[in-house]
C-alpha cells in the first residue's frame, strides 16, 4: 500500500514541551500549517518521567519530613501505617494521564495536526511516519524541527539492565526497602533524597568526593554533608563492576569505593548517570545534519542546524540546558522567527536559573565563584556569603537542624551580581524572584536598597555584609 501523502509548513518531531510550544505558536498565533509527531506520551520527559511527577514525589517526601519535625512543635503525630507508595503512585499516574489529555486538547485548540507514531527522515524535506496501526504517512515539510529529547543512559556494566533508570523510578509499584542510586547529577541527588525521606535505606554512589559538581563549591560541600547527616550512605570514589540477580527480587551490586571492594544486596539499583539524545530511529544521517561527539545536534543561538530548513532545540541539542522552560522559550522564539516576522527572535541563554529539588532545595543562577574568578580575575571579584539556621529549625534539637547557605558573586567596581547560589528551605520559590533581578543586571547596591522582609530566610540576600 502506498503511504498517505501530507504536506505542511512546519513539521515538529517530538511531542515534548519544546516541540509542542513551537508548533502551537506557529499554528495558533501565525497560521502556519503545523504537524506534530510523538511516539510515546505527549508532554515529553518533563510531564511523564521528569519535573512534574518528580516534584509531586518531592512534595510527598517533604511531608514525610514535616511529620517527623512536627514533634518539635508540640504535635504528637502517630502514623497508623507506613507511607502508601502504591496508592500514591496510582494517583500520581492518573494526574499525569490527565495532563497528557490536556496537551492533546491544546494542540486541537491551536489547530496543530497530531500524529502518534515514529518518524524517520527520508531526505532533508521528507519524513516517513509509521503510525500505531503500521500505516505509513509521508510528510513533506517546508521547515522541520527536531525536538525528540533524550533518554537515560545505562552504564557498560555487566548486568546493568537489571537496574532501572530515572524513567523506571516512576514505574516502581512498591517502595524498595533498600536502594543504590548511582550518579552525582541533579537527578541522582533528587531521587536519593526522596527515597531517604520516604523511609528507604539509601546508598548513593559517586565518582568523586562531592556531587552536583557543575554547581558552586558551596552547594557541593553543604549538600553532600547534609545528605550524610540525614543518613544517606555516600560511597565516594566509587565504580561498579557487576549487577546480578540473586532471586527473591534481590540484586547484588559489586563495587569499589574509597573503602575498597565490596558487594551489596539491594532491592533496586537506579542508574542516574546522564542522558543521551533520542536519535536512534530518526535516520538523521540522511539529512547530513551535524552532531557532536556525544551525538547532540549542533545548533547556533537561533536553533539553526547546518541544514537550512532543519532546526533543533531542547535536550537533543548541544546547548547544555536540559530544562523544560528553556525548551519552551526556545520553541516559541523559533516560531516567532520563522513564522512571525521577527528575524532576530532567539532565546538568550545567559543567566538561566535552575533549581535542584534536593533536601534541602538548591537554587543557582549565573556563574560559580571559580568560573567568575577565571573570567574576571581574582582582584575584580567580591563574594558575599551567609550561612545560618532558618527560623523554622529554632524549635528543634541541634542534630535535627537543616542548613541554609547563600552566596553572591559580584564583579567589578559596581559589584554587578554575576552569580547567586542558595540552598535551604524554599530556595526554588526564592530564586524565581531573584532571577528577575539578576537578569536585569542587579548590583549589590540594588539588593542593599531593597528593604528586608522579616522574618524570612530570603532577607539575608538583601542584608549581606
Can you describe what's shown?
The protein has 465 residues and is an alpha/beta fold. It has three domains: 4-52 and 87-152 and 276-339, FAD/NAD(P)-binding domain; 160-273, 3-Layer(bba) Sandwich (FAD/NAD(P)-binding domain); 360-462, FAD/NAD-linked reductase, C-terminal dimerisation domain (Enolase-like, domain 1, 2-Layer Sandwich), CATH 3.30.390.30. It has eleven helices and 20 strands. The chain has helices spanning 17-29, 44-49, 51-69, 85-109, 166-169, 186-197, 217-230, 324-339, 369-376, 427-439, 444-449; strands at residues 4-13, 34-38, 113-121, 126-131, 136-146, 150-152, 178-182, 201-205, 233-235, 239-247, 250-257, 260-266, 268-271, 275-277, 310-312, 354-356, 362-366, 381-388, 404-411, 416-423. The strands form five sheets. It has a five-stranded mixed β-barrel with strand order 1-2-3-4-5. Strands 16-17-20-19-18 form a five-stranded antiparallel β-sheet, sandwiched between helices. Strands 9-8-7-13 form a four-stranded parallel β-sheet. Helix 7 (217-230) links the parallel strand 8 and strand 9. Helix 1 (17-29) packs parallel to helix 4, helix 1 runs parallel beside helix 8 (324-339) and helix 3 runs parallel beside helix 6 (186-197). The mean pLDDT is 97.
